[in-house]
Design goal:
By secondary structure, the chain is an alpha/beta fold. The chain has three domains: 156 residues, 3-Layer(aba) Sandwich (Alpha-D-Glucose-1,6-Bisphosphate, Chain A, domain 3), CATH 3.40.120.10; 227 residues, Alpha-D-Glucose-1,6-Bisphosphate, subunit A, domain 3 (Alpha-D-Glucose-1,6-Bisphosphate, Chain A, domain 3); 119 residues, Alpha-D-phosphohexomutase, C-terminal domain (TATA-Binding Protein). 39% of the residues lie in helices and 20% in strands. It has 17 helices and 22 strands. Helix 4 runs parallel beside helix 5, helix 4 packs across helix 7 and helix 9 crosses helix 14.
């Protein structure tokens, strides 16, 4: 075995606080299993999208107690470098995934041992409540143990700045540098004079605000089926529905309680095909025409609507357009901004322009969207990956408040004899058809990540001249920036006035993603259904060409 690898593994074993993880690594050493040890040590987890995310396993490439302990030491050193007073405290929360309770306890013990005040969530709760509590309590930072919608064996560590938004560079690099150099952590236990359980009053204030803002006036019997997809959104969301006056919400029992195994789902992600099947079946039983879903940490919102042709699962962009029609008329002021990302639909910009509201485009991710308004107010922000910010009380995506907002719109339309699908028809009839599809190519392990980088590099070096029979009019290497945005890994290709394509590596999963949008101007002579069919045909043709170009 490579002596350097053996030394690294032995050093890790010495510091690892988990006896089972130590035993696993020691056994691999004794078996000279260099391949498996390389998998666990060659590519340590790095601070990507506002934190760490990866499989639960021993070694620096996995989420485990030692990784969490070192990351928390990095957070403490980062706060000290910034000169942030630890007395302000750090909000700590977790979801219901495998390892979350243990990792949460490690965070708390390390913070207390360093003399940092801790505000701990009383139980597993949604991620947006941590973001909310950081602002509400004036905390120095927030830490959430979650892997959001990743596969069941993953977990993660999400970090918030004092403004309640996800950290951005260079803060992530500073935390990582200190974490890599971490020594032996000093630990302290609850109870402690530095430890506080977050009061129910704080969370009640959040519910009161959101349930009042998105209340169904006079109460509503509009039937809704709701699923938290085995996550932690169930009880909080049902409380919000009740307080906001939605009396006919039926929960999907088989997916309601938190369960990190996600037994009814191939992937716990409302974007995945089949993820909402149980919810739609439940809705049919109670004669509901709207399904509302949260992902496992409830920072995302999924939805499906039943129309004349059966159930239609809404894309993230479609939910974004729908929410915009509600929020663009909801008291926007001169300092207000609405925003979306470079990989989301261009429709929102047109809607904002007509409404006279400032629009901003950001890089992918809510760490950028939350800051889109600068010193103003982000009135509404969304990303196509089912992330929505509908109220400035939370400086991150929030699937709970977004669920209330979408439900309110459905109720308002129902009173007019219309549905969310009717509203989508109205939007595209007015602004033109925007046909979108996202393509994801999954790659596992270090070799998979290399293949992803190679595919993007190939696209940079040899960009196509046409896709789907449409000429590529402009090519942009996003590493050099784009329309005032900072550099990011990916490329953008314009298809003249017909749309655009963005290709980039995922920031949270081992995937290569492509975002295709084909647009056409509004037409008073061609039926909307025919316009959509033509645009869909073009999207499929573009996708076929992309798949051939990007295949690993």
């Amino acid at each position: 075995m490579n002596p350097a690898l053996r030394d690294r593994v032995s050093a890790w074993i010495t510091g690892d606080p988990d006896p089972e993880d130590r035993a696993t690594l020691q056994s691999l050493l004794e078996d000279d299993d260099e391949v498996e040890l390389e998998r666990r040590f060659a590519s340590p987890l790095t601070f990507g999208t506002a934190g760490l995310r990866g499989p639960v396993m021993a070694g620096p490439a996995g989420m485990n107690r030692y990784t969490v302990r070192r990351a928390t030491q990095g957070v403490i050193a980062w706060l000290a470098e910034l000169g942030v007073d630890g007395e302000r405290g750090v909000v700590v929360g977790r979801d219901g995934r495998r390892g979350s309770e243990s990792f949460n306890s490690e965070v708390v013990r390390v913070l207390l041992g360093a003399g940092v005040k801790v505000f701990e969530m009383p139980q597993p709760l949604p991620t947006p409540l941590v973001a909310y509590c950081v602002k509400e309590l004036g905390a120095a930072a927030g830490i959430m143990i979650t892997a959001s919608h990743n596969p069941p064996n993953d977990n993660g560590y999400k970090l918030y700045s004092s403004d309640g938004s996800q950290i951005i560079s260079p803060n992530d690099e500073i935390v990582e540098r200190y974490a890599d150099a971490a020594g032996i952590a000093v630990l302290a236990e609850r109870p402690s004079s530095l430890h506080r359980w977050i009061s129910p009053d704080v969370l009640t204030k959040y519910r009161g605000h959101m349930s009042q803002r998105f209340a169904a006036a006079g109460g509503s019997d509009f039937p809704i089926a709701y699923t938290p997809l085995h996550g932690v959104g169930g009880a909080p969301m049902m409380e919000l529905f009740a307080e906001a006056g939605y009396r006919q919400v039926t929960k999907v029992d088989a997916q309601f309680e938190p369960d990190g195994r996600f037994p009814t789902l191939p992937f716990p992600n409302p974007e995945e095909p089949g993820a909402l099947d149980l919810a739609m079946a439940c809705a049919d039983e109670v004669h509901a025409t709207l399904v509302i879903a949260n992902d496992p940490d409830a920072d995302r919102l999924g939805a499906a609507v039943k129309g004349s042709k059966g159930w239609q699962v809404l894309r993230g962009d479609e939910i974004g357009w729908l929410l915009a029609t509600l929020l663009l008329t909801d008291g926007t002021g001169a300092d207000d901004t609405i925003a979306t990302t470079i990989v989301s639909s261009t429709m929102l910009e047109a809607m904002a322009r007509e409404a006279g509201v400032r629009f901003t485009m950001t890089l992918t991710g809510f760490k950028w969207l939350a800051r889109a308004a600068g010193d103003g107010v982000l009135r509404f922000g969304y990303e196509e990956a089912l992330g929505f910010a509908v109220d400035p009380l939370v400086a991150d995506k929030d699937g709970l408040s977004a669920a209330l907002a979408l439900s309110l719109l459905a109720v308002q339309l129902d009173k007019k004899g219309q549905t969310l699908l009717d509203r989508l028809d109205q939007i595209e009839s007015h602004f033109g058809v925007h046909s979108l599809v996202q393509m994801s190519l999954r790659a596992e392990g270090a070799e998979g990540l290399v293949a992803i980088k190679r595919a993007v590099a190939k696209m940079r070096e040899h960009p196509p001249t046409a896709l789907g029979g449409i000429a590529v009019s402009e090519f942009f290497d996003l590493e050099h920036g784009y329309e005032g945005l900072g550099p990011t890994d990916g490329v953008l290709l314009r298809l003249g006035a017909s749309g655009r394509v963005v290709v980039r590596p995922s920031g949270t999963e081992p995937k290569l993603k492509a975002y295709i949008e084909v647009t056409s101007p509004p037409s008073s002579t061609t039926p909307l259904a025919r316009q959509r069919e033509a645009a869909s045909d073009t999207v499929r043709a573009v996708r076929r060409d992309l798949e051939a170009l990007l295949r690993f």
